[in-house]
C-alpha cells in the first residue's frame, strides 16, 4: 500500500475530531471577507493545538490530550446527495496529479526496479530504450513505498463528506460559535438572535441536518473586533458585558485586521490558508483540462460513476448552503447561514486566473491572537464541556446498572422500550431497520464511547464500545453493532502500550455487516480504509490487499480504481514482492480509472504496469497496455507519447489476430494523421511500418539491362536480380586487374580498385562509389510487413542531399551549396528539384501479410557532385476491401519516412579495434557523381547455347556506344580464352555480315587433291601470342581506333566447343576507356556470362614412335633428317543426342616448331574416313623434322594433309587462333623442360659446366620427347527440323613423348589421397638418372643389304655379302658408340629358324657421333651354305661423351634383318 504523509495513528485521530459549528452575523462576515476568507476558513490553519490538554475521566484520572485538532465548519442544513459526493471525490482525485520535475523514486522488488512515483509517466513508457537510466534516486529501505497523494485527497474528502448518521455521534456538533462584530449597534441582541437560530435548527424539528451531539450544546460567544476599522473601547465594553452575561468560560474577544489595507510585495505576509483552501477551492488547471478532455473523448466513457463530468463545471458546489429564503431562516433574513467554503461557488472554478491573497489585513500578531483564541476555546470551553458530559453519561449508566439486565429488557419489550421499529420483527435479522430514541441507554453508552474516543481516552472508549456492541447484537441492531465493532477495533489499536492485540475480526465483521446486511457501501468503505491502514502498519500486506480487493464493486469505478491501486502497492511491498500481481492489479486499476474518467491516472497505472510486462514475452499483454497508453495519451493531448505507444505495438512481431492488428494500425494512422495536421514542423517523422532492413539495401549504378531482341542477345552485365557470389566477384576482379595491367603496359596502377556496379552488404563499401552523370542510380530497399494485414504504400520515393561539385577544376573540384528535397517532400512536391536530380516516385506499393518485398527507386543525377541518399519517403495506409459503401471507408494515409542507417563492417585490424566494438564506414549510399563517360552495350548475334566438343561456330558481336562520349581502347578478357577468337588482323573477314555467312564454312578452304602435306610457316605473334603463354586479353580492332557517340560496330566471333562435355560458364569482361581522360573514373567495364552445353563428338588418340628406317642419301636427308611414325586413332563417341548422323575426318594437320606431318601412309582407298556412332578409325602418318632458318626458330610450321579434295588452311583464322589459344597440358607433363626454346637454349644444358647427372638426364629425355601437335578437322552431318546441317570442328592432340599415347579428351584427375603429416624433414630426392629405356634410344641403327643373294657354293664354298650399318645420333649431345660384331645368337629357337654365319674383318668399332650425325660402316658377312640368315646380330653400345660408364647401355636392336642365300 502506498505510503501516507501521516502515521496510522495520526490519520485515525485526524479522521475523528470534535466538530464545532459556526454562526456569524453579516457584519462579522464582512470583517473576515476583507481577508478573502470566511470565519471557518480563517480559523482552519490554527485548529490544531500546539500544547497538551487535560481532563479527568469518571474515575478522576487525568487524561492527557495531545495534538488535538478541532473541526470548525459553518452550519449546513442541506445534506450532500450521492451524486454530488461522487463529483466532489472525482474532482479531488483529478486535481491531485504527480508533480512534474521532481526526482523519481525507485522501488526494488525482486529482480525489478520499478519507478512508481512522480515521474512514472515519463520513465516507464515503453518507447524508452532503457527506463532504468531515468532513475535518479534509489531506495535505501527494503520496503520503500511511494506516495499517492491523490488517494490521500480522495480519502480526506471522502471522510469529510460523509453524512452524519444516527447510529454514531463522532461527527455530530459538540458546540456552536456565535460570532458577532463589535461594530453591531446592539451586539447583545445579535448574540440573542444567533442563539435562537441555533436552538431552532437543533430543536424545532424542521431540519434533519446537521446533527447535534447532545441537546445542551455548548454555545461560545465570540465578539469579532476589526482593529483597523472599529472602536476598541466600545469593544472592550461590550466584552465586559458579555462576561457578566455569559461567563468568562463561554465568551471571547477576538481582535483581527491590524492592517487597514493589503500590504505591498515587500511586506507580504505568510499565507497559511492556501494549503488548506486549494483542496476545496478551484481545482488545478490539469483537472480542468481533464474535465474538458473528458467531454470530447470519443471512444472511452466520460461519465464519472453515472454522472457526466461536464456538470461539475456548471453546477454549484455540493457543500454550498443555498442562500434562498426557503432554505435559510425565514424569520431572520439578515442572518447569513455560512457554508463550509463560500468561495466554492461557480462549481469550484476561480473567478480569475490570478492567485487570490489571503489574510492581507492580518499581521503575525493577529495570527497569534487567532491561535490563542482556539486554545482558549478548547481548553476553557470545549474540553470542560466534554468532561462534564462524560461524567453525566457515566452517572446515568451507573445508576441503571442496579437493575437486572433481563428485567430491563423485559420492561422494554412490554412497554415498547421506546424503540420504534421501522419494519416488521421478522425482518430484523436481515436488515438494519431499527432506530433507538435519543434517550435509549444503548445510545448513551455509544455517546460516552464517542466522547472518550474524541478526547483520546481509548481505554474507556473500548470498554464502552464493547459493552454497546453486545447490546446491539442482542437487539439485532446490525447497523449499530457494526459501528460499535468498527470503533472498538480502532480503540484497541490506538491504546498506548498495546494492552490487547488489534481485533482484525471485528473489522471484518463490521465490513461484512455494512456491505451485506446494511447495504451501506460508504460505511463499509470507511471501515476498509481504516483497517487497511492498520494492517499495513503491521506489515500484513497480503491481508490488506485482500481486504481492498474485496471492496471493489461495479457501483463505483473511482473507488475500485483507488483500492486496486493500493492493493497493487501492497503486493509490491511484501517481504517477497509479488511483482506480477502488482502489475496485474495496476492494469485493473487503470481500467477502472479510465471508466471513472480519470485519464491521467489511468495512463499512469498502465505505464507503471508496463515496467513489469515489458520484454518478458507477454506480447499480448504488452500490446493491450501500449494500445491503452496510446489512446489515453491521445485523449490527454500527448500526441508524441500516443504515437510512440502505437509504434511499439506495430514494430514488434505481434501475436494478435489479423482483425486486432488492423484495428491497431487504423488507430495509429488516425492518431498520426491528427498530429501531423496540427503540427507545422517541416521535418517528416519516422514511420514504424513496414520494417526496413537497411543493411540489405543494394545500390546499382547504371541502366537496366536490355532483354534479347530476336537473334540479338544482350550482354548479361550486372543487375539487381543476380545474387551476390563471392567467388564470382573475385573472378571478375582478377579479370579486370589483368586487362588493366595490359592496358597500362603491364603495370597495374597503385590505386586500382575493381569496378563495382552493385553494392550490397557483401561488397567493400569503405570507399565512396562512383556514378556517372546522366546515368541512373537504382536503390533497392527491402521491406518486411510484420503484420497479418496488408499494407499500402503510396508516393514511394527517396530523400537525398546533394552537394554540387565541378571535378574539372583542380584540385578535386569546388563544392557548392548543399541541396535537399526534404522540404519539397514534406510539401508533397518530391519532383520539384528534378532539374538537379530526377527522383522516381512509385505511386502504389502493396505489401502482403507477413511478406518481405523489395522496392527499386531510381535517381537520375544531372550535375556532378556528392550525393547522399538519406531516407525512404512514403505514405502509409491500409488496404481496405472495396465494399462500395462510402467515402468514409477509404483507407487513411499518413506521410512519413524511414532513415537508411547502415552500419559498416566491424573493424578488426589493430589491437584497440579487436578489444572494442568499432565499425567502419559504409558509403554505398554516398556516391560521387563524375563527369560523363562512354557507355558500351554489347549484343551477340547467332550466339549458340550448345556445341559439340571442338565444334567451330561463327557468330557476330555488335558494339554500340549509347553515350554522348566517344570510347577507345576496347579490349576483352575471359576466363576461357580458348573458347573464342576475334581472328588475327591479317585474316580475311569476308563475308562481312551475319546473314551472308550463315551457310558458309568457318574455315578458309582450297580445292587441292590429296598429296604430300602443304606447309606454312607462322609466327605466334600474328595471333597475339608471345612465347608459350596463351593470350588472356584480346584487343578488339575499332575503325579509326575508337567508337563515336551512337555508333555501332559488328565484327565476327569464332567459337569453339569446350573439349570436356557438360555445361560450361564462360565469362567475358569488356574493357573500354574515354577519349577524354576522367580524373575520377579511368575506365569502365562490361560483363557478360554465357553458358555453353558441350556434347561429345570425337575422341582422338595419337601415338608417335621412331621409324626404323634412315633417310637415304640425297633423299629425305636433305629434307630434314630423321623421321617417325604417328598413329592417330579416332573414335566417334557421340551418342546421337544432337542428331549427328556421322563424322567425316576431312583433314589432319600438324603444328610444331620441330616436326611436321609428311605423308599419310594409309591405303589409298581409305582416305576419307567416315565414322558412324561408336565406330573407330586409325590413321598412320610419317612425320619428319622441320628445316627452319636461324631466324625462324620461334615460328610454327603448319602442315595440312587433307583426306578429301578440299584443303583447310590451318595456318589462318580460326584454326590457327584456336590452336594458339588452346590450353597447354604439355607444360605440366614435361617436368618443366622447355620444348619450344631456341637452339642455343637447348645446348646450354649440354656444356661441361652442367656436367651433372641432371643435365645428362635432360639430354637423354629429349631423345624421347616430341613437340608435335596434331589437329584433326572434321565435319558432322546433323538433321535438324528435317534439314541437314553440316557442322565442322577441330580437335587438338599434343604429342609429348615417343611411345606415350596422347588424347584430345581431357582425362579426369583422380582424387588425391590423404597425405599423412610429416614431423621430420623429407630425405633429399635421389639423383635423377636416365632409365635404361631412355638410354637405349640414343642411337638408331639400320642395316642395308640385298634381300636375296645367289652364290654358287659348289664352285666357291664361302659367300661374302657386303652389308652397310647406318648409325644415327638421335640426341642433341655428342655420343660415344661401340659396335661389337662378335655377338652370336645362342637361343635354340633362333638356331632352328636361322642359320649361323660370321662377320669378316674388324669385329669391334669405336665411333663418336655429333648431335644428329649419321655415319655408315661397311661390313662383310660370310655364309657357308644356302639358307635364311638374320643379320641383326651386331651389338651397339652408346654413352654420353661427358658421362661415365654407368650411362653406357645396349641400344635397342633393330627388327630382324633376314637375308636369303641361294645356291646356284
Structural class: alpha+beta
Query: What is the count of helical runs?
Result: 34
CA-to-CA gap between the ends? Answer: 149 Å
Report the count of strand segments: 62
Multimeric state of these chains? single chain
Name the average pLDDT. Answer: 78
As a percent range, the share of helical residues equals 25-40%
Shape: rod-shaped
Please outline the major beta sheet: 11 strands, antiparallel
Q: Give the percentage of residues in beta strands.
A: 25-35%
Taking pLDDT < 50 over at least 5 consecutive residues as the criterion, the unreliable ranges are 117-145, 281-353, 402-432, 884-888, 1114-1120, 1226-1252
Rg, rounded, reads 60 Å
Report what the structure shows:
It contains 34 helices and 62 strands. The radius of gyration is 60 Å and the shape is rod-shaped. Helix content is 28%, strand content 26%. The strands form 14 sheets. Strands 16, 29, 31, 33, 35, 38, 43, 45, 47, 49 and 50 form an eleven-stranded antiparallel beta sheet that branches. Strands 18, 20, 21, 22, 24, 26, 27 and 28 form an eight-stranded mixed beta sheet that branches. Strands 14, 15, 17, 19, 23 and 25 form a six-stranded antiparallel beta sheet that branches. Strand 10 and strand 11 (307-308) form a beta hairpin. It has 1464 residues and is of the alpha+beta class.
Amino acid at each position: 500500500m502506498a505510503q501516507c504523509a501521516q502515521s496510522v495513528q495520526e490519520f485515525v485521530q485526524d479522521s475523528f475530531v470534535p466538530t464545532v459549528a459556526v454562526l456569524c452575523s453579516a457584519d462579522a462576515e464582512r470583517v473576515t471577507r476583507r481577508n478573502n476568507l470566511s470565519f471557518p476558513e480563517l480559523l482552519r490553519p490554527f485548529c490544531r493545538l500546539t500544547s497538551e490538554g487535560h481532563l479527568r475521566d469518571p474515575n478522576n484520572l487525568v487524561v492527557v490530550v495531545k495534538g488535538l485538532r478541532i473541526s470548525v465548519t459553518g452550519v449546513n442544513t442541506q445534506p450532500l446527495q450521492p451524486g454530488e459526493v461522487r463529483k466532489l471525490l472525482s474532482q479531488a482525485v483529478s486535481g491531485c496529479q504527480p508533480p512534474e520535475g521532481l526526482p523519481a523514486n525507485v522501488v526494488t522488488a525482486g529482480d525489478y526496479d520499478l519507478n512508481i512515483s512522480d515521474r512514472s509517466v515519463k520513465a516507464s513508457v515503453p518507447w524508452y530504450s532503457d527506463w532504468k537510466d531515468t532513475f535518479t534516486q534509489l531506495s535505501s529501505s527494503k520496503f520503500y513505498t511511494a506516495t499517492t497523494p491523490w488517494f490521500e485527497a480522495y480519502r480526506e474528502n471522502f471522510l469529510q463528506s460523509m453524512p452524519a448518521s444516527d447510529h454514531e455521534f463522532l461527527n455530530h456538533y459538540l458546540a456552536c460559535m456565535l460570532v458577532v462584530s463589535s461594530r453591531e449597534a446592539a451586539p447583545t441582541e445579535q448574540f440573542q438572535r444567533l442563539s435562537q437560530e441555533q436552538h431552532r435548527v437543533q430543536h424545532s424539528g424542521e431540519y434533519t441536518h446537521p446533527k447535534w451531539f447532545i441537546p445542551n450544546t455548548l454555545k461560545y460567544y465570540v465578539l469579532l473586533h476589526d482593529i483597523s476599522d472599529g472602536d476598541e473601547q466600545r469593544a472592550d465594553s461590550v466584552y465586559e458585558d458579555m462576561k457578566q452575561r455569559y461567563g468568562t468560560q463561554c465568551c471571547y474577544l477576538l481582535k483581527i485586521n491590524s492592517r487597514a489595507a493589503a500590504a505591498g510585495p515587500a511586506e507580504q505576509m505568510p499565507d497559511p490558508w492556501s494549503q488548506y483552501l486549494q483542496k476545496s477551492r478551484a481545482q488545478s488547471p490539469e483537472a480542468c483540462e481533464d474535465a474538458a478532455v473528458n467531454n470530447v473523448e470519443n471512444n472511452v466513457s466520460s461519465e464519472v460513476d453515472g454522472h457526466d463530468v461536464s456538470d461539475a463545471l456548471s453546477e454549484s458546489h455540493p457543500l454550498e448552503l443555498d442562500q434562498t429564503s426557503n432554505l435559510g431562516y425565514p424569520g431572520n433574513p439578515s442572518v447569513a447561514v455560512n457554508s463550509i467554503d463560500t468561495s466554492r461557488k461557480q462549481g469550484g472554478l476561480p473567478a480569475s486566473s490570478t492567485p487570490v491573497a489571503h489574510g492581507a489585513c492580518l499581521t503575525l500578531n493577529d495570527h497569534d491572537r487567532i491561535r490563542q483564541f482556539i486554545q482558549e476555546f478548547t481548553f476553557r470551553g470545549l474540553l470542560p464541556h466534554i468532561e462534564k458530559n462524560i461524567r453525566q453519561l457515566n452517572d446515568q449508566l451507573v445508576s441503571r446498572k442496579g437493575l437486572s439486565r433481563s428485567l430491563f429488557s423485559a420492561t422494554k419489550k412490554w412497554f415498547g422500550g421506546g424503540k420504534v421499529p421501522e419494519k416488521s420483527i421478522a425482518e430484523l435479522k436481515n436488515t438494519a431497520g431499527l432506530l433507538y430514541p435519543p434517550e435509549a441507554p444503548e445510545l448513551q453508552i455509544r455517546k460516552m464511547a464517542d466522547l472518550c474516543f474524541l478526547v483520546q481516552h481509548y481505554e474507556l472508549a473500548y470498554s464502552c464500545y464493547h459493552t454497546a456492541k453486545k447490546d446491539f447484537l442482542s437487539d439485532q441492531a446490525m447497523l449499530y453493532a457494526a459501528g460499535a465493532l468498527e470503533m472498538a477495533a480502532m480503540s484497541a489499536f490506538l491504546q498506548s502500550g498495546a494492552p490487547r492485540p488489534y481485533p482484525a475480526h471485528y473489522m471484518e465483521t463490521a465490513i461484512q455487516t455494512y456491505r451485506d446486511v446494511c447495504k451501506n457501501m460508504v460505511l463499509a468503505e470507511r471501515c476498509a480504509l481504516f483497517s487497511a491502514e492498520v494492517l499495513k502498519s503491521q506489515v500484513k500486506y497480503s491481508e490488506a490487499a485482500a481486504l481492498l480487493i474485496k471492496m471493489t464493486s461495479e457501483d463505483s469505478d473511482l473507488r475500485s480504481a483507488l483500492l486496486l491501486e493500493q492493493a497493487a502497492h501492497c503486493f509490491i511491498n511484501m517481504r517477497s514482492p509479488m511483482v506480477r500481481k502488482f502489475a496485474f492489479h495496476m492494469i485493473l486499476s487503470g481500467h477502472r480509472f479510465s471508466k471513472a474518467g480519470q485519464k491521467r491516472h489511468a495512463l499512469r497505472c498502465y505505464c507503471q504496469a508496463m515496467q513489469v510486462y515489458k520484454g518478458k514475452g507477454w506480447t499480448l499483454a504488452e500490446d493491450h497496455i501500449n494500445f491503452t497508453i496510446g489512446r489515453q495519451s491521445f485523449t490527454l493531448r500527448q500526441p508524441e507519447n500516443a504515437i510512440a505507444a502505437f509504434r511499439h505495438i506495430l514494430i514488434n512481431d505481434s501475436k494478435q489476430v489479423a482483425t486486432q492488428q488492423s484495428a491497431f494500425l487504423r488507430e495509429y494512422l488516425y492518431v498520426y494523421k491528427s498530429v501531423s495536421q496540427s503540427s507545422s514542423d517541416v521535418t517528416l517523422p519516422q514511420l514504424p511500418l513496414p520494417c526496413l532492413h537497411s543493411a540489405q539495401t543494394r545500390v546499382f549504378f547504371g541502366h537496366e539491362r536490355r532483354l534479347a531482341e530476336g537473334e540479338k542477345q544482350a550482354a548479361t552485365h550486372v543487375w539487381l536480380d543476380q545474387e551476390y557470389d563471392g567467388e564470382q566477384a573475385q573472378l571478375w576482379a582478377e579479370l579486370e586487374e589483368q586487362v588493366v595491367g595490359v592496358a597500362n603496359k603491364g603495370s597495374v596502377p597503385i590505386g586500382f580498385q575493381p569496378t563495382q556496379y552493385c553494392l550490397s552488404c557483401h561488397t567493400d563499401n569503405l570507399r565512396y562509389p562512383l556514378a556517372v552523370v546522366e546515368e541512373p542510380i537504382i536503390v533497392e530497399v527491402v521491406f518486411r510487413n510484420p503484420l497479418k494485414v496488408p499494407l499500402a504504400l503510396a508516393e514511394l520515393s527517396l530523400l537525398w542531399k546533394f552537394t554540387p561539385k565541378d571535378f574539372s577544376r583542380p584540385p578535386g573540384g569546388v563544392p557548392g551549396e548543399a541541396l535537399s528535397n526534404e522540404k519539397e517532400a514534406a510539401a508533397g512536391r518530391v519532383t520539384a528539384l528534378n532539374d538537379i536530380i530526377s527522383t522516381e516516385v512509385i505511386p502504389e506499393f502493396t505489401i502482403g501479410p507477413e511478406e518481405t518485398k523489395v522496392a527499386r527507386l531510381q535517381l537520375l543525377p544531372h550535375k556532378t557532385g556528392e550525393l547522399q541518399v538519406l531516407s525512404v519517403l512514403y505514405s502509409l495506409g491500409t488496404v481496405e476491401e472495396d465494399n462500395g459503401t462510402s467515402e468514409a471507408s477509404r483507407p487513411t494515409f499518413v506521410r512519413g519516412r524511414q532513415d537508411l542507417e547502415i552500419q559498416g563492417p566491424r573493424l578488426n585490424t589493430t589491437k584497440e579495434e579487436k578489444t572494442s566494438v568499432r565499425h567502419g564506414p559504409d558509403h554505398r549510399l554516398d556516391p560521387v557523381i563524375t563527369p560523363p563517360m562512354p557507355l558500351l552495350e554489347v549484343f551477340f548475334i547467332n550466339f549458340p547455347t550448345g556445341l559439340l566438343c571442338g565444334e567451330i561456330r561463327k557468330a557476330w558481336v555488335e558494339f554500340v556506344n549509347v553515350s554522348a562520349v566517344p570510347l577507345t581502347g576496347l579490349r576483352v578478357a575471359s576466363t576461357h580464352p580458348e573458347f573464342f577468337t576475334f581472328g588475327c588482323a591479317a585474316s580475311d573477314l569476308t563475308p562481312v555480315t551475319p546473314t551472308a555467312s550463315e551457310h558458309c564454312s568457318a574455315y578458309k578452304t582450297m580445292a587441292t587433291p590429296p598429296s604430300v602435306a602443304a606447309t606454312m610457316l607462322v609466327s605466334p605473334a600474328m595471333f597475339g601470342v608471345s612465347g608459350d603463354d596463351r593470350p588472356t586479353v584480346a584487343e578488339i580492332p575499332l575503325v579509326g581506333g575508337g567508337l563515336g557517340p551512337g555508333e555501332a560496330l559488328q565484327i565476327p566471333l569464332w567459337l569453339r566447343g569446350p573439349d570436356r562435355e557438360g555445361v560450361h560458364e564462360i565469362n567475358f569482361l569488356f574493357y573500354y576507356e574515354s577519349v577524354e581522360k576522367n580524373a575520377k573514373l579511368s575506365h569502365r567495364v562490361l560483363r557478360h556470362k554465357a553458358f555453353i552445353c558441350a556434347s561429345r563428338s570425337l575422341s582422338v588418340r595419337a601415338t608417335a614412335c621412331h621409324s626404323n628406317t634412315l633417310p637415304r642419301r640425297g633423299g629425305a636427308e636433305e629434307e630434314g633428317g630423321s623421321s617417325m611414325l604417328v598413329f592417330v586413332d579416332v573414335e566417334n563417341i557421340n551418342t546421337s543426342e544432337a542428331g549427328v548422323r556421322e563424322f567425316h575426318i576431312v583433314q589432319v594437320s600438324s603444328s610444331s616448331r620441330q616436326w611436321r606431318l609428311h605423308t599419310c601412309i594409309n591405303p589409298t582407298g581409305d582416305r576419307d574416313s567416315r565414322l558412324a556412332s561408336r565406330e573407330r578409325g586409325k590413321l598412320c602418318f610419317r612425320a619428319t623434322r622441320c628445316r627452319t632458318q636461324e631466324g625462324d626458330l620461334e615460328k610454327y610450321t603448319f602442315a595440312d594433309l587433307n583426306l578429301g579434295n578440299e584443303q583447310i588452311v590451318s595456318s589462318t583464322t580460326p584454326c590457327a587462333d584456336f590452336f594458339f589459344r588452346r590450353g597447354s597440358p604439355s607444360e605440366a607433363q614435361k617436368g618443366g623442360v622447355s620444348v619450344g626454346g631456341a637452339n642455343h637454349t637447348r645446348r646450354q644444358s649440354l656444356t661441361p659446366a652442367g656436367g651433372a647427372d641432371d643435365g645428362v638426364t635432360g639430354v637423354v629425355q629429349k631423345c624421347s620427347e616430341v613437340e608435335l601437335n596434331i589437329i584433326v578437322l572434321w565435319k558432322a552431318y546433323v538433321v535438324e527440323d528435317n534439314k541437314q546441317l553440316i557442322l565442322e570442328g577441330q580437335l587438338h592432340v599434343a604429342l609429348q613423348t615417343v611411345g606415350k599415347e596422347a588424347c584430345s579428351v581431357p582425362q579426369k584427375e583422380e582424387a588425391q589421397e590423404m597425405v599423412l603429416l610429416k614431423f621430420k624433414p623429407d630425405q633429399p630426392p635421389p639423383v635423377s638418372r636416365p632409365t635404361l629405356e631412355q638410354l637405349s634410344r640414343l642411337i638408331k641403327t639400320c642395316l642395308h643389304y640385298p634381300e636375296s643373294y645367289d652364290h654358287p657354293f659348289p664352285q666357291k664354298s664361302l659367300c661374302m655379302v657386303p652389308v652397310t650399318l647406318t648409325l644415327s645420333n638421335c640426341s642433341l649431345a655428342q655420343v660415344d658408340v661401340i659396335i661389337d660384331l662378335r655377338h652370336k645368337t645362342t637361343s635354340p629357337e633362333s638356331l632352328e629358324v636361322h642359320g649361323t654365319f660370321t662377320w669378316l674383318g674388324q669385329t669391334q668399332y669405336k665411333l663418336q657421333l655429333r648431335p644428329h650425325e649419321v655415319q655408315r660402316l661397311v661390313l662383310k658377312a660370310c655364309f657357308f651354305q644356302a639358307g635364311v640368315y638374320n643379320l641383326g646380330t651386331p651389338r651397339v653400345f652408346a654413352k654420353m661423351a661427358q658421362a661415365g660408364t654407368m650411362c653406357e647401355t645396349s641400344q635397342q636392336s633393330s627388327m630382324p634383318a633376314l637375308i636369303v642365300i641361294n645356291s646356284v
